[in-house]
Each structure stands twice: as structure tokens, then as C-alpha cells.
Design goal:
The protein has about 180 residues and is an all-alpha fold. The chain has a domain of about 120 residues: AhpD-like (Up-down Bundle). About 65% of the residues lie in helices and about 0% in strands.
């Protein structure tokens, strides 16, 4: 098992302390992922910037959840799946959608299924998608902007998912009730 340091505000590099204080104000706690990322202040800031940018994309709460959880589940992230389950609940996303994502079952509607399928293709094929993949995505009502926003979401999730794999980041107490183990098929 690998681990990286889980910082506190006091033990973090000086350059990360203000950002960690902002995290505590925003979340009411210091998320474990932020505590790990604090060891590299630039990475912590990059992650937070990508997170903010993705949240402000054209995707609604359900679509954000589909992109995040599709990637988290595909990457088998023990930390992010429970965290984003909790975040989805806070965003008032239907629990049927979050459970479908966690359990790798069909999405509740065709448009979300197309978003899920397209996101998986981007992840699994490292961005190599076909014109047919794009046409299917566009026919569902998405456009070039959303293609690029899926890549933005993936960029954020690569930082968090890979960090959590290496750090073996403990799941925050607030999200432990949403614990998850991969049922990869």
C-alpha cells in the first residue's frame, strides 16, 4: 500500500496554508484530497481551479455528476466515488442517477446515457474518438463546447483519482456512509 502525507494546515507548506484555510471555509472541513495535494502548492491550486472551471461549465448538476462519476468509477477511485456521491446529494441530484453510476447500470434517460458513453470513450481511448462518436454526442443535444468540457472534467479527475490511488487518501468522515468498492465488469 502506498501513501503520501495528509497535511494539516499547520504542517502544510507555507504556500498552501491560505488555500487550505479556504477549503475549510468552503467545506466546513479540510478534505483529505486537498490535504494531500497541499504538499505541492501548484498542484492544489491547479486542482481547485479546474474544479471551479468545471462546475461553471455548461453542464447542469446531473451532467456534472455523470462526467465526474463516470470517470471516478472507471478509474476505481475509492475516495472520489463516495465524495462525489455526497456532493451529488448536496446538489439535489436524484439518487437513482448516482446509484446507476456507482453500479455501472443504465442512466435514467438517453441524453445522460450518451454523455456517460461518450465520457467513457474519451477516458478508455485516451481522447481518440471517432466522428461517429461525435455525431452521436451531437445528436443528443451536445456540441463542441461540451466535448471540450468533458476533457476539462477528465483533467480534474486525473489529478484527484491518480493522487488518491498513490496516496491511499482516507475517505473523509462526511462521505464514509457512501463508501464504494469497484464491481468492475
Amino acid at each position: 500500500m502506498t501513501t503520501l502525507k495528509v497535511n494539516t494546515i499547520e504542517s502544510a507548506p507555507e504556500e498552501s496554508k491560505a488555500s487550505l484555510e479556504q477549503s475549510v471555509k468552503a467545506f466546513g472541513m479540510l478534505p483529505g484530497l486537498h490535504a494531500v495535494l497541499a504538499s505541492a502548492p501548484e498542484v492544489l491550486e491547479a486542482y481547485k481551479t479546474l474544479h471551479s472551471a468545471f462546475q461553471n461549465s455548461s453542464f447542469n448538476a446531473e451532467e456534472l455528476t455523470v462526467v465526474w462519476q463516470t470517470i471516478n468509477v472507471e478509474h476505481e477511485c475509492h475516495y472520489c466515488v463516495p465524495a462525489h456521491t455526497g456532493i451529488a446529494h448536496m446538489m439535489k441530484v436524484d439518487s437513482a442517477l448516482t446509484e446507476a453510476l456507482r453500479n455501472r447500470t443504465a442512466m435514467p434517460n438517453e441524453k445522460l446515457q450518451v454523455l456517460h458513453d461518450f465520457t467513457l470513450k474519451v477516458v478508455r481511448n485516451r481522447g481518440h474518438v471517432t466522428q461517429e462518436d461525435l455525431n452521436t454526442f451531437y445528436a443528443a443535444g451536445y456540441g463542441e463546447r461540451q466535448v471540450l468540457e468533458v476533457i476539462l472534467g477528465l483533467s480534474q479527475k486525473v489529478i484527484s483519482n491518480y493522487t488518491n490511488h498513490i496516496a491511499n487518501t482516507p475517505v473523509d468522515e462526511a462521505f464514509q456512509k457512501f463508501a464504494w468498492e469497484s464491481q468492475k465488469v
